[in-house]
Amino acid sequence: MRRVISDIGPSITITSLTNVVAFSVGALSPAKVMSLFSAGTAVAMAFDYVFELAVFAPCLLLTLRWEKDGDTVRKSNEMQSFWWYYAKFVLSKSGRICALLTVVLLYLATFLGLQKMEATFDASKTFSVTSPLKRSVDLFDIIYKQYAPINFVIRSSPNFTDPNDSTNFLGMIERLESRPEAYGRERTLFWLFGYIEFCRNELGVEMSIDSANYSLSLDYLDRFAKSHIIGEQNLVQYHLDEKGHAVIDSFLLTIIYTGKDGWHLRAQLSAEIREFLRDYAQYNITMFNYDSPIFELITSINKELAKSVVITLSSMACVCFIFVPSIVNAIAATLSILSISCSLLGMLSWLGLDLDPITMINVLMAIGFSVDFSAHTCYHFYFYERTHPATLPYGDDADGNVAKLTYTFHAIGSPLIQAGASTVFCMLPLFTISSYVVRSFAKTVCLLVALGILHGLFIVPSLLSVELWPRKDKSKQHPTAAVSKLDGNDSNEDAPMM
């Protein structure tokens, strides 16, 4: 058991640590759904690491009484030969060209996918297709396409008896109404327009807000506010001064827009209007929309995702430098994590996913899991140099890279493929569930497995085998010695494996 723990300890530690760090970063997200998911997963990963060593390992030791003496598990010669020829292909000219073309095509597809991905939110995606709640959300979407009001609370009212101040404020309203998404003046809900009509029709008093012939009095505001026209709606707050004149404290303005262009453009519209209102800060205007929390999430999701990715990648890089004490290999592992994460996000766009909180959670999860595909490859490639001299098994391996890659593939190739295949197999039933959340999770995991195996067994080995500086002379061994090392007959019994 001591040998088993020493062999698998680094693997379990680096996997658990990177996953806990990745999800701990996600727990700091302002999006509550993402924060709760990440925090719960981080705690679960930490407990799993403890139970793996404290509970599972002793239980495994107890099963030895049912084991037959002399049972051993050895790799077949056919598998050794396969990894040897595959390592030769990776290091060949055609293999390097294939790796280069694969990277170029992958990054091109990633770039195009990122270009077409929009930051948005669709509440119906959180429900099953057959859920009544989804039907309700769909009805709201139909309404929003025709009617998407934005309310403005003016807390520092302009002086409507002053033509200059009033004209400036009315000019702001006109600019808000002139946007292509707005219906225009005929659907704007502003108490002043109703007040002028009330004075003209009910009292016979003519007033005008035309800049060329401005004439406005608030002497009848109290009667207007108590009339049946606005009644108890509290569209305008005012008080009477010592002379009995109405002084406006605050009021509500509502401009009707269309939401036919979807959540993304509605969020963009809200952001642009907020920026526009900065030019009228003297009125202390607060823009209110029932969907403002969603709009804030949509407009900030790019920054939040970028921040989480940078922090998480930095944490992953630190972990890689700790467990892979080789600068070149650690950098290769970090670049591989970055490549897998970016490629995953771009390829998810081609699978119909948008940049929303669900995708954020999936990408954050993927960053932590992507370490497993590259760090182990880099570790074994580095570890071979320390425990094995450069070999020349078949007389044409001048720099020992074929032997190193064969050793690496022999150690992690089959487990990596088996783990990936079993994970994808477990995800297949999820595609039968008519839920966007479940299917997006399954798509992310399957795509992550494919990209991870591609990087771990093809792209990263090609990168690691590139010599950046002249190698030192190392002794060469007979082919049988190299093969015996791959068989596990290495004399270094205490050498850790990953």
UniProtKB/TrEMBL annotation:
<dbReference type="InterPro" id="IPR051697">
    <property type="entry name" value="Patched_domain-protein"/>
</dbReference>
<feature type="transmembrane region" description="Helical">
    <location>
        <begin position="416"/>
        <end position="438"/>
    </location>
</feature>
<protein>
    <submittedName>
        <fullName>SSD domain-containing protein</fullName>
    </submittedName>
</protein>
<keyword id="KW-0472">Membrane</keyword>
<dbReference type="GO" id="GO:0006897">
    <property type="term" value="P:endocytosis"/>
</dbReference>
<keyword id="KW-0325">Glycoprotein</keyword>
<feature type="domain" description="SSD">
    <location>
        <begin position="1"/>
        <end position="62"/>
    </location>
</feature>
<keyword id="KW-0812">Transmembrane</keyword>
<feature type="region of interest" description="Disordered">
    <location>
        <begin position="477"/>
        <end position="498"/>
    </location>
</feature>
<feature type="transmembrane region" description="Helical">
    <location>
        <begin position="305"/>
        <end position="324"/>
    </location>
</feature>
<feature type="transmembrane region" description="Helical">
    <location>
        <begin position="12"/>
        <end position="31"/>
    </location>
</feature>
<dbReference type="Pfam" id="PF02460">
    <property type="entry name" value="Patched"/>
</dbReference>
<dbReference type="GO" id="GO:0030659">
    <property type="term" value="C:cytoplasmic vesicle membrane"/>
</dbReference>
<dbReference type="GO" id="GO:0018996">
    <property type="term" value="P:molting cycle, collagen and cuticulin-based cuticle"/>
</dbReference>
<dbReference type="GO" id="GO:0005886">
    <property type="term" value="C:plasma membrane"/>
</dbReference>
<feature type="transmembrane region" description="Helical">
    <location>
        <begin position="445"/>
        <end position="464"/>
    </location>
</feature>
<dbReference type="InterPro" id="IPR003392">
    <property type="entry name" value="PTHD_SSD"/>
</dbReference>
<feature type="transmembrane region" description="Helical">
    <location>
        <begin position="330"/>
        <end position="351"/>
    </location>
</feature>
<feature type="transmembrane region" description="Helical">
    <location>
        <begin position="43"/>
        <end position="63"/>
    </location>
</feature>
<keyword id="KW-1133">Transmembrane helix</keyword>
<comment type="similarity">
    <text>Belongs to the patched family.</text>
</comment>
<feature type="transmembrane region" description="Helical">
    <location>
        <begin position="363"/>
        <end position="384"/>
    </location>
</feature>
<dbReference type="InterPro" id="IPR000731">
    <property type="entry name" value="SSD"/>
</dbReference>
